[in-house]
Every structure is written in structure tokens, then in C-alpha cells.
Design brief:
Helices cover 28% and strands 38% of the residues. It contains 6 helices and 8 strands; from the N terminus they run ββαααβββαβαββα.
Length: 179
Amino acid sequence: MLKGRSVLLRPVKRSDISYFLKWFNDPEVVQYVELYMPMTEMSEEKYIEELGTTRAKRDAQFVMEVIEGASTKPIGTCGLHEIDSKDRKAVFGMVIGEKDYWSKGYGTEAARLIVNYGFQQLNLHRISSGAFAFNERSIKLQKKIGFREEGRLREAFFKNGQYHDLVLLGLLREEWRGL
Ligand SMILES: CC(C)(COP(=O)(O)OP(=O)(O)OC[C@H]1O[C@@H](n2cnc3c(N)ncnc32)[C@H](O)[C@@H]1OP(=O)(O)O)[C@@H](O)C(=O)NCCC(=O)NCCS
């Protein structure tokens, strides 16, 4: 478990399926991610099972909980994916599925926790990520914690009736050290 001042990141449990189904079937949330098919209970059960088996060394996925007094509440998920032990790199992803918790600083705090985990525990050399060009909030968050824009895939994703650029970002271990 990774614990910050107002959020904690804990491993995924089977009983989290209902949260994932709620968050990833909400059009307001899904507009920001590459997912485009309905998320089914069966596919999510399979994914969660894989986190303990075939994906165990490839995906470090967490549920993000906000600390509210003595209790905590799940608000989203984040993780490092495609963990590559040769090149020592991984891909960062984050979704706060509870919309009332957007733009309150929780994402920034959680992203710092996961990036520190990637460099300090997984011994990564590089963390990359991507965001649709219109997702200014996500791009701002990532740049705030040190990610640099590395390019863009022009009109790479079709979403809500039009093509969107994907902005590519990356953070190297040395840059993170200097922060
Ligand atoms: C993107 C996301 C993870 C950000 O987390 P968050 O907790 O909402 O963001 P934070 O409050 O920590 O920080 C967001 C920053 O963007 C700024 N911001 C908020 N809305 C903005 C907007 N519409 N345009 C530009 N900047 C915006 C905030 O002011 C803040 O910057 P500041 O700290 O300098 O003031 C979260 O909003 C989310 O999950 N959204 C839906 C799914 C998604 O977009 N996932 C990312 C896919 S790449």
C-alpha cells in the first residue's frame, strides 16, 4: 500500500469489480480514455484474475482511496503498465471515476506516489504516458509532476465523432531525481 496525506493506493480486490464497472461505463469518464467498448463483468473479472497471474509482473495496478477522517473511499484507479525489466520502463495511467473528486488535487498526490514507487521500488529508468490533446487537466497534472511532452500521434484516436491527437509524455529517472 502507498500512503499519502489525503490519498492511499492499495492493491485491487475482486470486490472492486462494481467500482470498475461504474467508472468505466460512465461516458463522462470514458471520454478521456482509449476504452470504447462497454466494460462487462466478465471482462473485468478476467482482468482482475490476470493481475494475480499473467499480469503479476507486468501491471502494478492500484485502487485510489481518499482518506476522509477515520474512513477511506475508493475514487479511482491508477497504475504502471507494460513494466519492462530489460529497458526498465513502464506506462503510467490514472482514472478518477468519482467525478465529484476531480480537480481537488487527489490526482496530483496519487501520481506522485506512483511515480516514486516506479523509480524507488521498481527501479525504473523511464515512465511514459499519453493523453488526448483536449484533456488539458491530465496534461497539466503530468507536467506539474515532471513529465515532458515528447511528441504527438496526430489524429490517432476516433472519439465522439472526431479524430483526436494523442500527446505523448515521458519522465526519466534523472529528471525525477532533480525535482
Ligand atoms: C485527469 C485526472 C487524473 C486529474 O486528477 P485531478 O485530481 O482531477 O487533478 P488535480 O486536481 O490533481 O490537478 C489538475 C490540474 O489541472 C488543472 N485543471 C483542472 N481543470 C482544468 C481544465 N479544464 N483545463 C486546464 N487545467 C485544468 C487544475 O487547476 C490542476 O492544476 P493546479 O494544481 O496547478 O491548479 C482526473 O481528473 C481524472 O481521472 N479525469 C477523468 C479521466 C482522465 O482524464 N484520466 C486521464 C487519462 S490520460
